[in-house]
Amino acid sequence: MASPVSMTSFKIIFYIFLVMISISFPLKKCDAASEESLTQHTTSFHSVPVRQLSPSLNCKSTTSAGPTGKSTLKIVNRNGACYRGESSKLTLSQILSHDKSRVASIQSRLQASSTSNTNGLILEDRQISLPNKPGNDLGTGNYVVTVGLGTPKKDYTLILDTGSDLTWTQCQPCKKFCYPQNDPIFNPFQSSTYYNISCSSPQCYLLRHATGHAASCSGTTCVYDIQYGDESFSAGFLAKETVTLGTDVLPGFLFGCAQNNQGLYGNTDGLLGLGRSQISIVSQTAKNYGRVFSYCLPTWSGSNGYLSFGKTGYSVKTVKFTPFSIFKPSENFYSVDLVGISVGGKRLPVLPTVFLTAGTIIDSGTVVTRLPQAAYSVFRDTFKQQMKGYKLAPALSLLDTCYDFSGVDSVNVPKISFIFRGNVTVDLGANGILVPVSETQTCLAFAENNGPADLAIFGNIQQQTLQVVFDDAGRRLGFGPGGCS
Ligand SMILES: *[C@@H]1O[C@H](CO)[C@@H](O)[C@H](O)[C@H]1NC(C)=O
Ligand SMILES: *[C@@H]1O[C@H](CO)[C@@H](O)[C@H](O)[C@H]1NC(C)=O
Predict the structure, then answer these.
(1) Which residues lie with the beta carbon below 6 Å from any ligand 2 atom?
(2) SS3 34
(3) How many helices (H) and strands (E) does the chain have?
(4) Are strands 154-161 and 270-273 parallel, antiparallel or unpaired?
(5) Going by CA atoms, what residue is nearest to atom 9 of ligand 2?
(6) Which residues are CB-contacts of 359 (< 8 A; sequence separation ≥ 6)?
(7) How far is CA 52 from CA 77, 282, 430, 440, in A?
(8) In whole angstroms, what is the distance from residue 249 CA to residue 166 CA?
(9) Phi/psi of residue 263, each to 5°?
């Protein structure tokens, strides 16, 4: 314990030190600083009307649509104002709690050297426990798209997931358990193009790699079983069906006719697997679209987001590409090399190795961007410094930097850019920086990782309004501004 005397002498020394610092950097520094803050306000800050940060948003029906290709689908946020499905809308605290589970699952999946579970669970044997507590939800991102399935085609609203591979929809007769969903549940007996896949077929073997679980059999039908986390799962028959993307009709698509599903899927009809393994929709449609898709995730009040398959879905002029990671490659996720971050036009003093050691993935289903601890602390402190004119508010869950903007008309928010390998600088949209919680609480929408081995995740709030191009054939990821609003 420090005695009062030594505390005092410490303070005195400290003040002398401060005085010496201010003396050794005379007036010139003040000039530079004020000059800088002038230019910063024009070029390095977003001026955001506080109205726009209000948690009670209206759906903006925009006329400017994204690309209008044949294979372009509309994306909406299932917690946003433009989602017309029956509401299971979540509060921000609930969204953050789900986000923690998703990230914990991703981190453990990536860190486990061999995660495959050889239990080969058989559908008939699975113990069904009805949802009485929230599940862990790797599969429950916030953005949904509508795809057509069957002949005649019916529409299903599926969660967009770049972090998993098998596409599934809840399916009659729901042998074990189907949660309530908005659309009538898919009925294989009403489609002329549905076929069960046999458990001896080579396609059934693809499941092991794609789901981490060996397939099993029900009669002669191949049974898949995916666990997204401790509690969230889907199991059912592997089947072949005609899928309709926009106006493109594609026969023979492998998907899950889901018979037992539990987790935080909301009232959506299932999941669209946009991952990299052979069973993902990206791989299965390779001959049609060349393993390229792009999307724009709209803001929570935006209505013109899109998912587009093929090379024509994005603007070649404005999209810049960074190669997939060579330092931390991933089979399952889209990994890239983040090397730096700028805040308010200034590159943070964080060495690229801080990011490269952890590695970075982009994920459509993680909400809040996660950064390595050593980078996050510098990032947050710089942001706070540049926002020091605003009143702080209490933290919320994993968001530790919050502001009270009540009584303020418009806020100057520092621009934030991510810098990827190849000097690809991606300026985040103004909506990708702060997230509104209540009238008196708006938080910086970034969080730090729990451990040094955890990788960075480019989350979906920060991806909002960007054109993001997933070019698995060219092993590169592209970013462009102004894809949607
Ligand atoms: C698919 O296989 C399962 C399990 O054998 C069976 O219950 C179901 O009726 C089959 N579906 C069709 C459409 O044949
Ligand atoms: C990286 O890009 C920025 C602008 O985007 C530019 O100012 C800078 O000079 C570039 N650096 C290198 C090393 O090319």
Answers:
(1) 423, 425
(2) helix
(3) 9, 30
(4) parallel
(5) 423
(6) 325, 327, 328, 330, 335, 337, 455, 456
(7) 17, 35, 10, 14
(8) 19
(9) 150, -170
Residue type (1 letter), 332: N
CA dihedral 204, 366, 418, 450 (to 10 degrees): -110
Looking at per-residue pLDDT, the higher value among 18 and 134 belongs to: 18
Domains of the chain, CATH where assigned: 18-53+316-481 (2.40.70.10), 72-309 (2.40.70.10)
Give me ligand 1 centre to Cα 201, in Å: 16
- Which is it for the CA torsion 74, 79, 80, 83, positive or negative? positive
**pTM, entire model:** 0.85
**Predicted confidence band of residue 127 (pLDDT cuts 50, 70, 90):** very low
Distance separating alpha carbons of residues 436 and 86, to the nearest angstrom: 23
Return the ligand 2 atom nearest residue 423 CA: 1
Confirm or reject: Cβ of 219 under 6 Å from ligand 1.
yes
Average pLDDT over residues 115-133: 32
Inter-CA distances, 258 with 174, 188, 205, 207, Å: 7, 11, 18, 14
| Mean pLDDT taken over the chain | 83
- Number of the ligand closest to the Cα of 221: 1
Task: Order across the sheet with 456-458: list the strands.
Answer: 334-336, 360-362, 456-458, 369-371, 446-448
Q: What is the pLDDT of residues 455-481, one digit of tens each?
A: 999 999 999 999 999 999 999 999 999
Q: Is the CB of 198 under 6 A from ligand 1?
A: no
- DSSP per-residue letters across 63-88: S--S---TTEEEEEETTSTT--SPP-
Q: How many Cβ atoms are within 10 Å of 23's Cβ, its own excluded?
A: 8
Cβ(265)–Cβ(131) under 8 Å? Answer: no
- Phi-psi domain of 310 (left: phi exceeds 0; alpha: psi -120 through 50; beta: other): left
Residue 92: φ, ψ to 5°: -60, -35
Catalytic residues, by residue number, are 161, 363
192 lines ligand 1 (CB under 6 A): no
CB 361 within 8 A of CB 455: yes
Question: Which residue has its alpha carbon closest to ligand 2 atom 10?
Answer: 423
Query: If DSSP states are collapsed to H, E and C, what string results for 385-439?
Result: HHCCCCEEECCECCECCEEECCCCCEEEEECEEEEECCCEEEECCHHHCEEEEEC
How far, in Å, is the centroid of ligand 2 from the Cα of 423?
6
Query: Are the beta carbons of 441 and 394 closer than 8 angstroms?
Result: yes
Distances (CA, A) of 289 to 167, 300, 470: 17, 29, 12
